[in-house]
Amino acid sequence: MTGASGITTRTYKAGSIIYFDGDRSDHIYILKSGKVVLTSIKLDTGEEMKENVRLGEFFGVKSVLGKYPREETAQTISETTVLVLRAADFEKLILANVSIVRKMLRVFSNQLRRIHKMLRNVLGQADAVNPAIELFSIGEYYYRNGVYNQALHAYKKYMEHYADSGNAAKAMQRINEIETGNYKPDTGPERPRSEESLFGGDDTMDDFRLDDNDSDEPREVMETKSMLDSELNNFFSEEEALPDFDDFSMDEQDNFSGGRLEEAGTLFEQKRFDNALNLYREVLDSGELMDDNDIAKAYLGIGRSCAELGNNKEAMQSFSAIVKNYPASAGAKEAYFEIGAILDSSGQKDKALQYYKKTASLQPNDAFTNKAAKKIKELGV
Amino acid sequence: MDSFERFSVEYSPNEIIFCEFEPGYEFYFIQSGKVKIVKVINNIEKTLDVITTGDVFGEMSILEHEPRSATAIALDHVKLLKFHRDNFDSLLEGNHELAYKLLLIFSKRIYDAKRRLMILLLDEPSLKIMDVFIMLAEQTQSVDPVNEMSFAVTPQQVASWAGMNLKNVQAELDKLIQLNKIDMYKDRIVVKNMRDFQRLVASRRKNMYS
């Protein structure tokens, strides 16, 4: 029976398959009479899930709207009659019944939340985050990077929603600093930095910039090299503009975080690099570190642990973060040296040399001065 | 959308619309301009998406009581319609097309997230990478992927989808080149036999829990 609207009725015997998992189709169904069971495989456990369709309920909707293959098999349990719609019919129908949309959106939103949670678990990202701490550290991130209008937004929202959660005094201080133009880390006027200078050398999945490196080197080498190059270009182009970071450490030292930094250092010395790395990250991500030297220390620890674990790229990013954001910290000198060492080991002697020289030129005269001098000599200069 | 002028808001370039982790009760419809969606991950700001006229964002706030999961920043002069979730019902009543659009957006987001999860759940790095290409093939909407397909992707993008580090992805891609399964060019990767990849991944997925 075909109506003028294009909606048709279909009758199935018991045990029939209406559609299979993996099928592509543009049919949406409404159960009119009988019984339909949907069988799907749970992604994380492989468990088989069965779900009955209720009378009058839609099924097969999402895969049609999202234009992807069916994710479940629909089978009849008894003699069954369904209405068959195409996307256009469905659109017309629900546009006339908006309460259905609201119900579906709620179901979809719950599903999406569940999947996101599974994704976070698989990726090993902790899901017990404290939004108050996180929002404050977003503010700190933009503040440190000189993006003051965005930092201000984060601090103000923090004061609006989370003022009772510990960092209120600091947030107020920051707001005041920004609004009076009296921010400490950057003495210049507010200047929004381009994305290039802030985030260059980063490989987000949506970053479609192609490498215009025309070298004939094997691909892997080229890849590493281009990564380092952009990191370096980035750094060198910014060097002139980098202000002298004052030490803006706060009066109250956070002993708890400080203690955990020590603990991470001990783990590192015990060559438990994985554990050390995790703890360094945890301390850094907690947003509790206020003193530049401590933040640099955490980055140093992450960089050194990553280098030990063979992850040169992240090591490089951590060390670069220090020279970019905390050039006046106690850890900066070591960071320069470590960058030199990574470049050295990847065969970029000239670049390595620049970093060793920079290390040697920095005060105080310490073990890294000697190490750098030795490396410069080895490189035959 | 003319009847919604009273919901209109404007932002200047670089102005923040909402920030990751702040509570959010509104969602937005872009009337003109570009909006960047970013997230600070390990102290690096990563751009997740750039969206433009006709797109909707912040829609998770409609039905959830969670803080924002990402930051939205105006890239140029942006005109938006801003809807509070309390007005959601009347909004749906007043604009059925927007309601339908939201359904489409949610359907697509659910599938994309699920598909990503399927890749991450595979236990062998080589299969994860093959599955990334299968996913990309699916996105072309060709019902029946041809044997040879070309993808305008970089190893970094593959690494990000596979949840692997770049170095391991490079090594796996090199293996696939040696086995003559793929060709690599500066701007694209060509998979020589999609069906081959599909067979391998499907058979592994089938046996994963048995």
Nutshell version of this structure?
The complex is a heterodimer of chains A (381) and B (210). Chain A is α+β, with helices and mostly antiparallel strands.
CATH class category label of the largest domain in chain B: Mainly Beta
Supply the CATH superfamily name of the largest domain in chain B. Answer: Jelly Rolls
Instruction: Report how far apart the termini of chain B are.
Output: 53 Å
Oligomer: heterodimer
Envelope shape of chain B: elongated
- Looking at the structure, what is the overall shape of chain A? elongated
Distance between the termini of chain A: 89 Å
CATH T-level fold name of the largest domain in chain A: Serine Threonine Protein Phosphatase 5, Tetratricopeptide repeat
In helices, the fraction of residues of chain B equals 25-40%
Spell out the helices and strands of chain B N to C: EEEEEEEEHHHEHHEEH
**Average of pLDDT of chain A:** 76
Instruction: Name the CATH architecture of the largest domain in chain B.
Output: Sandwich
Domains counted in the coordinates of chain A: how many? 3
Helix content of chain A: 40-55%
Overall pLDDT score of chain B: 86
Count of separate DSSP helical elements of chain A: 15
